[in-house]
Specification:
The protein is mostly beta strands. It folds into 2 domains: 22-74, no CATH class; 81-203, C2 domain (Immunoglobulin-like). It has one helix spanning 93-102; strands at 22-30, 36-45, 54-60, 67-73, 81-84, 116-124, 139-145, 148-151, 162-171, 177-186, 189-200. Keywords: Calcium, Membrane, Metal-binding, Repeat, Transmembrane, Transmembrane helix.
């Protein structure tokens, strides 16, 4: 019930040079669970922004009244990686020893924000739901930790996909929950939900 909402939410997007350079933003209005209305869209050209500084942007909504006020910072990505199983980070014993030394008790208070890393190996899924008429699915897996999100590639026409990917996240809050969701890719349509599991970091 506000025409001037304040969200004050921060999201981390892992931007890689081989991805498209436009950040697409949509603003929606929700009356109830069933009715939603698009209030406007805007775009930000990431390549045009100065790096290593916080950019304050007021973005007018296209073809609609109103604007968005955003703070966007483009900075080198640290601690986040996607790799194949055979070349996963932290696999080298000497590297693991360095990490253990970095996070030992005596170094606990050197950097309060540097809590640690979470490494997730997404191997495969078994007996997924068939989302296509042909009795198959095109599954991919999305990993979310806090406001960080990474995903695997899609394995087409397969109910038992093997991804064999390794994801490394920096941990910002030890009370966060790792959410792993499997979707069925459906062309230009929104992906279909195939299943989800939630893992509190404190349970690891």
């Amino acid at each position: 019930k506000s025409a001037n909402p304040q969200w004050r939410e921060q999201f981390d997007f892992h931007y890689f040079s081989d991805r498209k350079d436009m950040l697409d933003i949509e603003v929606w209005r929700k009356d109830n669970k069933k009715h939603e209305e698009l209030l406007g869209t805007c775009q930000v050209d990431i390549t045009a922004l100065p790096t290593k500084q916080t950019n304050c942007l007021e973005l007018p909504l296209e073809k609609h009244p109103g604007s968005l006020l955003m703070l966007i910072a483009v900075a080198p990505c640290t601690g986040v990686s996607i790799s194949d199983l055979c070349v996963c980070p932290l696999g080298d014993p000497s590297e693991r020893q360095q990490i253990s030394q970095r996070y030992c008790i005596k170094n606990s208070f050197q950097d309060i924000k540097d809590i640690g890393f979470l490494q997730v190996k997404v191997l495969k899924a078994v007996d997924l739901l068939a989302a296509d008429f042909a009795g198959k699915s095109d599954p991919f897996c999305v990993l979310e930790l806090g406001n960080d999100s990474l995903q695997t590639h899609t394995v087409y026409k397969n109910l038992n996909p093997e991804w064999n990917k390794v994801f490394t996240f920096p941990i910002k809050d030890i009370h966060d929950v790792l959410e792993v969701t499997v979707f069925d890719e459906d062309g230009d349509k929104p992906p279909d939900f195939l299943g989800k599991v939630a893992i509190p970091l404190l349970s690891v």
